Amino acid sequence: MSFIKVNATSHFSFNNLPYGIFSTTNNPKRRIGVAIGDQILDLSLIKSLFQGPVISKHQYVFDQPTLNAFMALGYEAWQEARKTLQMLLSANESTLRDDVSLRSSAFVNQSVATMHLPANIGDYTDFYSSKDHATNVGIMFRGKDNALMPNWLRLPVGYHGRASSVVVSGTEIHRPVGQMRPDQTKPPVFGPSQQLDFELEMAFFVGGQTSLGQRIPIEKAHEHIFGMVLMNDWSARDIQAWEYVPLGPFLGKNFGTTISPWVVPMEALLPFVEPNSIQNLARFSLFLLPISSPTTPGKTLNDYNTICKSNFKYMYWTMKQQLAHHTVNGCNIRPGDLMASGTISGPDAESFGSMLELSWRGSKSITLGDKEIRSFLKDGDEVTMTGYCQGDGYRVGFGECVGTILPSLQH
């Protein structure tokens, strides 16, 4: 229990304590904060209180404008920092609770903060780890008898994405322009994508560091997974369908990828681990809810239209398998590298994590409210993804991952 009041429905309970990068009008410097309830604890102002054997030698990491230096310290440092934070925020600990001056300066209301990317992302990899999603897409493009490629059940399929276009929640996304071939009997055409889509995903940040040639065994993979965020892997399906042969996604993906600003530490998610009956490894149960509607000033969740609900437990390949496979050839990792799950889809239509599946490649319509119809996204549409793990009277959540579609930029 914390001395900071936290509503039972808040994503940022005492059991969570996610890390993020924020600034304020009064102090535009980007700095590391921890979310609790509707507050942010500014770690740059309390760095001297981290007196553990590891962090005490590296208190400078909480003065940095990104989480990279903290991520680089490794697993023991992360655990030590979390224990210190839980102690300082505890209702029974007076250090912060009773220091009126420090408390008034160290806590900032989330409503007055601007959130930024949590890390400098050096590399970004996107996996393809939902069997239901891979099967659905395979049926659409290759037929039921050839839905899964021969390698899919043998290894976590993935591709290297574009780190420079990963943006924080709230960043607007321009409709991409590219080459596509909507009519297979005619030559390809160039123009704005007509099949813009979202993909409901999770992603994890890598911590620690390895050398070129070094592998991460699956038994040690958890020591390199710093924490998780929500991700919207925006996709231009018509551009992607034409360009992906033979090397995979390119312009249909790299125009923008949105992540939520708060990085939930893996220690906060451990109580929600469930057995993976297929792979015999751990996964956790997470409720995910992407909701889409035209932008409405002063909107609340009631102004949105729920179009799907899914769960991270549906993933076939786990994060530990993804990371171990990523390095099995000796590929090195660096602090702040980002690795995404791929679209999270379940066995029924309500749990499909993309409009490609929900509309079945545009052959079905999705009704928003009483009037609006969608097969893919229109200009002005705002997509919000949110997710949390439900505990006994508390939540460990990720906040929101939000993006609005703007028209294509004109030359």
Automatic annotation (TrEMBL):
Q: Which family does it belong to?
A: Belongs to the FAH family.
Where the record annotates domain Fumarylacetoacetase N-terminal, the positions are 15-118
Query: What GO terms describe the biological role, i.e. biological process, of this protein?
Result: homogentisate catabolic process; L-phenylalanine catabolic process; L-tyrosine catabolic process
Q: Which Pfam families match?
A: FAA_hydrolase, FAA_hydrolase_N
Instruction: Locate the residues binding substrate.
Output: 128, 142, 240, 244, 343
Co-factor requirement: Mg(2+); Ca(2+)
Name the species this protein comes from: Takifugu rubripes
Q: What is its EC number?
A: 3.7.1.2
Catalytic center residues: 133
The record's InterPro entries line, in alphabetical order, gives: Fumarylacetoacetase, Fumarylacetoacetase-like_C, Fumarylacetoacetase_C_sf, Fumarylacetoacetase_N, Fumarylacetoacetase_N_sf
UniProt: Ca(2+) binding residues: 126, 199, 201
Q: Which UniProt keywords apply?
A: Calcium, Hydrolase, Magnesium, Metal-binding, Phenylalanine catabolism, Tyrosine catabolism
Q: Does the keyword NADP apply?
A: no
The protein in question is named Fumarylacetoacetase
